[in-house]
Design brief:
By secondary structure, the protein is α+β, with helices and mostly antiparallel strands. It is built from two helices and 14 strands. Strand 4 and strand 5 form a beta hairpin. The termini are far apart.
């Protein structure tokens, strides 16, 4: 890279060479829907934070973000999901950010474990093909130098953006509101004034697989428009709307025709063993043989020691009589 390129202006988001889109992402195409998955993406955030009595600062942070997105719904009157008409329910499973502030020192942000953060990619506005994306996030802000651990209480940070692909690589979501920062005593000590979140590259993606005894990821809903963000109860419902006992968190299951084989013991059903399973079984068998050999050696050493101790007094007595 030349010196002029290194010192040039920062790319505008959405441009082909923008951050988060420098490398083409396999399987991600604009205006196309894909089956649900759990995606971990790089993110960077600019957050304006006000701490009473300390001051206000715009903190730049970077980190990773993990999102579980359901299979897209099939709108009424359609035979399959359609970009710009379908909805995609999302649940935010993890967020880890870190940055430095001239006022607060180190700033760390993650999601609250007490409240579910969730969202939805919904139908596009009339005359547009960019889908509406909304999110309700409950962050926890840690300021170690100030000995503060703050949350937003019952007020989520509301984020909104327009997306042209899922996962939303290169997207920038902006907050629609400010949220109080509350310490562990319940006292409001500050405020998240605003937030900008820019999504980078996909670091890992794991497909959800089957979600029930229906037609797979092309699942229909009663209505073609789903504009309200989903809550955690969404993941406890089957396509028919019933709650599965013992699965209050989500309703994803392995395919019904296979079970997980025990390592080294062969498959539990007719499903073929994967190369990883075969290799793991061989390693376990080898370790078991080595452990058995080690036990035999230890026993031999113990028996030799016992025999030496039993023979020592007699040998010592005979040696004494020789003098």
């Amino acid at each position: 890279m030349s010196q002029s390129e290194q010192s040039g202006p920062r790319s505008v988001v959405g441009h082909p060479v923008a951050w988060g889109a420098a490398r083409p992402e396999g399987g991600i195409r604009p205006y196309q829907l894909t089956p649900g998955s759990i995606d971990t993406m790089s993110v960077r955030v600019r957050e304006k934070i006000d701490i009473h009595g300390v001051g206000m600062d715009v903190v730049e942070m970077a980190g990773v973000f993990t999102v579980r997105r359901d299979h897209p719904c099939t709108p009424s009157g359609q035979s399959e999901p359609v970009w710009g008409e379908s909805c995609i329910k999302t649940e935010f499973r993890g967020l880890e950010l870190v940055g430095q502030s001239r006022l607060f020192g180190t700033v760390r942000v993650h999601l609250s474990g007490e409240r579910a953060s969730h969202g939805e990619v919904g139908p596009a506005d009339q005359g547009s093909i960019a889908a509406n994306c909304v999110a309700h996030c409950y962050p926890v802000v840690e300021l170690p130098q100030l000995q503060m651990r703050l949350n937003t209480g019952e007020q989520p940070v509301l984020l909104a953006s327009k997306v042209v692909q899922v996962p939303p690589v290169g997207d920038v979501a902006r907050s629609d509101n400010s949220a109080p920062l509350i310490d562990e005593t319940g006292t409001a000590v500050g405020e998240i004034v605003s937030s900008d979140i820019e999504v980078g590259e996909v670091l890992a993606s794991f497909p959800l697989g089957s979600t029930g005894a229906d037609d797979g990821w092309q699942r229909s809903k009663e209505s073609g428009r789903h504009v309200d963000p989903s809550g955690p109860a969404f993941y406890a419902k089957t396509p028919g709307g019933t709650v599965l006992a013992g699965h209050e968190g989500h309703h994803q299951h392995p395919p019904a025709d296979t079970t997980i084989p025990a390592p080294g013991r062969g498959p539990a059903t007719s499903a073929p063993e994967s190369p990883m399973t075969v290799a793991l079984g061989e390693v376990l068998d080898r370790l078991q043989r080595e452990l058995q050999n080690l036990v035999s050696i230890v026993r031999q050493i113990e028996e030799s020691g016992d025999a030496g101790r039993h023979g020592q007094p007699g040998g010592g007595g005979g040696h004494g009589h020789g003098h």
